[in-house]
Structures are given as structure tokens and as C-alpha cells.
Amino acid sequence: IPKFAVFASGSGSNFQAIHDAVKAGKLSGQAVLVVTDKPGAFVEERARIAGVETFAISPSTFSSKELYEKEILQKLVELEVEWIVLAGYMRLIGNVLLEAYPSRIINIHPSLLPSFPGKDAIGKAMVHGVKVTGVTVHYVDAGMDTGPILAQQVVEVVAGDREQTEERIHAVEHELYTKTLQQLWSR
Ligand code: GAR
């Protein structure tokens, strides 16, 4: 079964969903590491409770993205990580990791890409007034939320209600990510 690392910058609800799916036997993979670029993020607490090793590493303490990613790569190699799963990791992946993990880095984004890439996709979609938005799971390349699409699911916007719309999107994310990874890893 594939060993994977989850990269996250925030709450880690997607990490949680993936970990729960593994525990429930719905996803055949092994989460061996959580990497966060935000030491103290809530995902660290989730990982601790889940019994998954965490690697908190602040990019600002490195003089370049390359050196920062080399430090991460060393840890990934040490733990024999085969796949990188981005789950709210709010940072572009650089050449070091892209070259070490070709077509082995997956991301989830809370919009129907290529609409609303980048930060606050849900807010941008609501400001734009779209009636439907959704969730995209895709391979990662050097761009911002670009890369070949693996799966998408539509979510209807609750007009004027950001909180409810966000809730719907997160619920879809948690299901779609697990399902897509399972398809990817079982073929
Ligand atoms: C998720 O909605 C994820 O799609 C988004 O960050 C959130 C993280 O939530 N990612 C992006 O916007 C990537 N551009 P979580 O920490 O609770 O999993």
C-alpha cells in the first residue's frame, strides 16, 4: 500500500477525512507524515491525535524555496514517502519536489478549476455571483492550482450565505478526495 505525506497549512479537516477513511478501510494507503509550513497550525494537533508524525517547517527560516524543499525532501526520502497529498497547503510547489515526485503530487481546490484559482476561492466565487461552484482534485504542476484534473464535483451556492456554502464544499471535499485517491492508488 502506498505511503503518503499530507501537506497542510491550516485546520487539516481534509487530512482528518483522509486519515479517517484509511482507518475505516475505505482508502488503502498509509499516512506516514504531515508536513506543515505553519508551525502551530491545528493540523498538527489532529496529526498528534491520529498518531501520525509531523514535520513543521517554516519557509522563512530558509534563504530559498529550494533549500526549504530540500529539507522536506530529506524527510520524505527517509520515511519512503511515495505520494504527496496537498490538503490546504497554501504555497506553490517548487522544482525540488516536482522533480522528486513527478505525477505523484495531488491537490484539492474548492472551486471548479480553472475558475477561481488561488486563495479564498469560495469568497471569490460568491463575490462573482456564480450559482454553482464545486471541488477539483488535480495533479500538481508548477502553476497555481493548474495541472491535469482527476475529478470534479459540483456544489450549489447558497445565495448570500458564505458559511453554508463553505460547509457544503468541505463536505464534498472530504468525500471526493478520499474517493479519488482510492481510484488513483488501486489502478
Ligand atoms: C480546503 O478547502 C482546500 O480545498 C483549500 O484549503 C482548504 C483547507 O481546509 N485549498 C486551497 O485553497 C488550495 N489552493 P482544511 O485545512 O480544513 O483541509
TrEMBL record:
Catalytic reaction annotation: N(1)-(5-phospho-beta-D-ribosyl)glycinamide + (6R)-10-formyltetrahydrofolate = N(2)-formyl-N(1)-(5-phospho-beta-D-ribosyl)glycinamide + (6S)-5,6,7,8-tetrahydrofolate + H(+)
Xref: SUPFAM superfamilies: Formyltransferase
Binding site residues for N(1)-(5-phospho-beta-D-ribosyl)glycinamide: G12, S13, N14
Gene Ontology terms for molecular function: phosphoribosylglycinamide formyltransferase activity
Presence of keyword Transferase: yes
Gene3D superfamilies assigned to the protein according to its UniProt record, in alphabetical order: Formyl transferase, N-terminal domain (3.40.50.170)
Pathway participation: Purine metabolism; IMP biosynthesis via de novo pathway; N(2)-formyl-N(1)-(5-phospho-D-ribosyl)glycinamide from N(1)-(5-phospho-D-ribosyl)glycinamide (10-formyl THF route): step 1/1
Protein name per the record: Phosphoribosylglycinamide formyltransferase
Pfam families: Formyl_trans_N
Similarity comment: family membership: Belongs to the GART family.
Keywords: Purine biosynthesis, Transferase
Protein origin, superkingdom: Bacteria
Site (Raises pKa of active site His): D145
The gene coding this protein: purN
Binding of (6R)-10-formyltetrahydrofolate, residues: K65, M90, R91, L92, I93, N107
Active-site residue numbers: H109
